[in-house]
UniProtKB/TrEMBL annotation:
<keyword id="KW-0812">Transmembrane</keyword>
<feature type="compositionally biased region" description="Low complexity">
    <location>
        <begin position="352"/>
        <end position="362"/>
    </location>
</feature>
<dbReference type="Pfam" id="PF08427">
    <property type="entry name" value="ARMH3_C"/>
</dbReference>
<protein>
    <submittedName>
        <fullName>Armadillo-like helical domain-containing protein 3</fullName>
    </submittedName>
</protein>
<dbReference type="InterPro" id="IPR013636">
    <property type="entry name" value="ARMH3_C"/>
</dbReference>
<keyword id="KW-0472">Membrane</keyword>
<feature type="domain" description="Armadillo-like helical">
    <location>
        <begin position="444"/>
        <end position="682"/>
    </location>
</feature>
<keyword id="KW-1133">Transmembrane helix</keyword>
<dbReference type="InterPro" id="IPR039868">
    <property type="entry name" value="ARMD3-like"/>
</dbReference>
<feature type="region of interest" description="Disordered">
    <location>
        <begin position="1"/>
        <end position="29"/>
    </location>
</feature>
<feature type="region of interest" description="Disordered">
    <location>
        <begin position="337"/>
        <end position="370"/>
    </location>
</feature>
<dbReference type="GO" id="GO:0016020">
    <property type="term" value="C:membrane"/>
</dbReference>
<dbReference type="GO" id="GO:0005829">
    <property type="term" value="C:cytosol"/>
</dbReference>
Length: 700
């Protein structure tokens, strides 16, 4: 320890005057020049292409006892021209090798920490120079291709050692920080050939260890999950990624539940911090009062917002998509109250920085009285209800799309569906609803204690009715309808009679068709709304053909017919629109979809054509001018026998979700966004010396 103190950069020099590390003041006669840091002198020698260790066999022991000067190193590297940096290949590779050697052979924690910080700043600074479109030049300059495989193997072995065994938390954080620096070195992670060495020398088991041990998970779980997210997505469409394979076959329940706990904690934290929009004042006096208040006290639009953590959402998707064993975690993991902000003082990812925001989620406010769901599925549904109600820009569309893709994967799983529909597994789930003109905003979205399938259907219906606008999100609607259709197929196949208010779904679907008919001129030049309408009609046909096998009771089936008859005009308008675009004279690019829609409407139109004359006849015979719903239902029940419908094929068929076929471009762009976001939050700040002293004292 004395060697550190003598250099003025050790653990006991808080009061020493500081000077610019890059320049010395010009001498004034009779005035003493300020001393330059010894480490700066060593850096200068390296940047001149010299070997500062020449003639001093213990040089590197002393070098790594000196606190890393991150600012000087980064500034000097950034000011170099490309050719200057390439000319320093020998010096930089020497520094890299000595860092790896220290990590592998030296048990001094201070040297290990400084070696890790040196590697972080060396790799970050070199990659920032963007020597070429690929990472080959960086590997050659910093490591050297001849020794890269050996050095990277030694480095990964050292990282695994520090992360698994009993070392200070700050050292473990730096190991994760170095991995994140490597993983986020390039915008396109799949072009980062440095990661090939992390593919060959796995850290997967180490990450699972961090997630399995509660104390380690609390301290490092979030960073470990982000590392796993990025590793799983490296070149996964181009080659066999060992992390994809290992995650897909993982059956360690403790590790899987640890992963679920981290995800659950992050989502729960977001849900707790979400504050629904305040209810708008009613009436002219309320609006005047609100206007005056805003004039006197302007709304603070610069308020820090809560981050939507796409890295955690992405790892949730990967776990659900790749590992069938993770479905049990969805159903059993509790929503934890543990802090997800790492409890260690120097986390790899600084989650306190301003980050991409949710459109309506101010930070720092805590709603009261909202009980949290008791499993990860319920927590995720609450989170999704927040995301799906605020779709205003490209980033929010991305968030919503990923949520819907995750839900699609869930409802395609047999075990997940059985849990969702189990009448003995009931939970209250908070679902937030958008503020719409025709209804007041809800102060809370707490549902009754019901099977989770009811909450999921509510979530899909809420999305369906709240986003009918000129900037219609066709892809999101198709995914939403796909979720509903998959749930109905499961109910039909397993004869599940879910006690749900099906009228809400039917009215939502009908309003969607009504919106299409009313917005034809605006939407059809740009969007194939016939494709969405086909999905809507397919759902209705599934109810018509098989509803008696899975609807709760015969009365509910009768109510379906009542809604179809009552909304006859909507179906006729949609049919007329489809016929116009499917006629030979239309020359429409949507000809095929329009023809299919017109054909699929045959049974719905037959129902209207069959029952309307009988309802009119009943009214005439009973001398009733205004018939009640109960009377209509009576006519319906007494005339089923004479109704003839056309049998339609494949109503309970759907194409299985296929990421590479349908979503590869989306996930490639999403990964780029996540990589950039993580890079911005991975700090290179030095470990606080007082913190390190405390950690060393507690472990000794």
């Amino acid at each position: 320890m004395s060697a550190i103190n003598e250099e003025g950069e050790g653990l006991s020099s808080p009061r020493r005057p500081t000077h610019s590390p890059t320049l010395l003041r010009k001498g004034i006669p009779g005035e003493r020049k300020p001393l330059k840091e010894k480490l700066i002198t060593y850096y200068e020698q390296l940047f001149k292409g010299e070997d500062p260790s020449q003639g001093n066999p213990r040089f590197w022991e002393e070098f790594f006892l000196l606190k890393v000067n991150i600012q000087y190193f980064q500034t000097t590297m950034s000011e170099m021209k490309t050719w200057e940096l390439i000319s320093l290949k020998k010096s930089l590779s020497l520094l890299f090798v000595q860092c790896c050697t220290t990590l592998q052979l030296d048990d001094n924690v201070i040297r290990n920490i400084n070696a890790l910080q040196t590697l972080c700043v060396l790799l970050r600074s070199t990659f920032d120079k963007k020597l070429s479109d690929s990472s080959f030049d960086v590997i050659d300059v910093v490591i050297g291709f001849d020794s890269a495989e050996c050095q990277m193997r030694n480095l990964v072995e050292a990282l695994n050692k520090f992360l698994v065994h009993d070392y200070p938390a700050s050292l473990k954080n730096l190991c994760l920080r170095l991995l994140l620096v490597m993983l986020t070195a390039m915008d396109n992670i799949s072009q980062n050939m440095l990661l090939e060495y992390v593919m060959m020398n796995s850290v997967f088991e180490t990450i699972m260890h961090l997630l399995s041990v509660p104390d380690l998970r609390d301290q490092h779980g979030y960073d470990a999950v982000v590392v796993l997210t990025l590793l799983v997505n490296y070149r996964k469409y181009e080659a066999a990624n060992p992390y994809v394979i290992k995650l897909s076959v993982l059956d360690d329940e403790i590790a899987l539940h640890g992963l679920g706990s981290v995800v659950s904690s992050v989502l729960t934290e977001y849900n707790k911090k979400y504050v629904p929009p305040t209810e708008e004042p009613v009436g002219i006096f309320g609006h005047i009062s609100s206007f005056v208040s805003n004039m006197l006290v302007p709304v603070d639009t610069s308020q820090t917002r809560v981050k939507i953590d796409m890295a955690v959402l992405l790892v949730l998707y990967e776990a659900i998509h790749l590992n069938r064993n993770f479905i049990t975690v969805l159903t059993h993991t509790k929503s934890l109250s543990n802090p997800v902000t790492p409890t260690t003082p120097n986390p790899a990812i600084d989650r306190s920085l301003p980050l991409p925001s949710s459109p309506t989620t101010p930070a720092g406010k805590q709603p009261t009285g909202l009980p949290q769901p008791t499993n990860l599925l319920g927590t995720f549904f609450t989170f999704s209800s927040i995301i799906l109600q605020n779709i205003k820009d490209d980033s929010s569309v991305t968030h919503a799309r990923l949520c819907l893709v995750i839900i699609t994967c869930i409802v395609e799983d047999q075990f997940a569906n059985s849990f969702l529909h189990d009448p003995n597994m009931t939970f209250p789930v908070t679902l937030h609803r958008a503020s719409l003109l025709h209804r007041k905003p809800t102060k809370d979205g707490l549902s009754h204690v019901r099977p989770l399938a009811c909450s999921l259907l509510d979530l899909m219906v809420e999305f369906m009715i709240s986003h009918m606008a000129k900037n219609f999100k066709l892809d999101l609607y198709r995914k939403c309808l796909g979720v509903v259709h998959r749930m109905l197929c499961y109910q039909k196949r397993c004869k599940i009679r879910l006690n749900y208010n099906w009228k809400e779904l039917w009215v939502g679907l009908l309003n969607l068709l009504k919106f299409f008919a009313a917005s034809e001129e605006h939407l059809l030049p740009k969007l194939n709304i016939f494709a969405v309408a086909i999905e809507v009609v397919k759902i209705f046909n599934l109810f018509i053909t098989y509803g008696d096998t899975f609807l709760p009771n015969p009365s509910t089936y009768d109510e379906l017919y009542y809604e179809l008859i009552r909304m006859q005009k909507i179906f006729e308008d949609v049919h007329s629109m489809a016929k116009r675009y499917s006629s030979p004279d239309a020359h429409s690019e949507f000809h095929s979809s329009a023809s299919q829609l017109a054909a699929n409407l045959v049974n719905v139109r037959s129902i209207s054509a069959h029952f309307h004359p009988r309802i009119n006849a009943w009214s005439a015979s009973h001398h009733v001018t205004s018939i009640t719903p109960e009377q209509v239902l009576e006519v319906v029940r007494s005339n089923y026998d004479t109704l003839t419908l056309k049998l339609q094929d494949n109503l309970d068929h759907f194409d299985k979700y296929a990421e590479k076929l349908n979503e590869a471009a989306f996930f490639t762009q999403l990964l780029r966004s996540v990589t950039n976001s993580v890079r911005e939050t991975v700090g290179l700040s030095s470990v606080q010396q007082l913190t390190l002293l405390n950690e060393l004292g507690s472990t000794s």
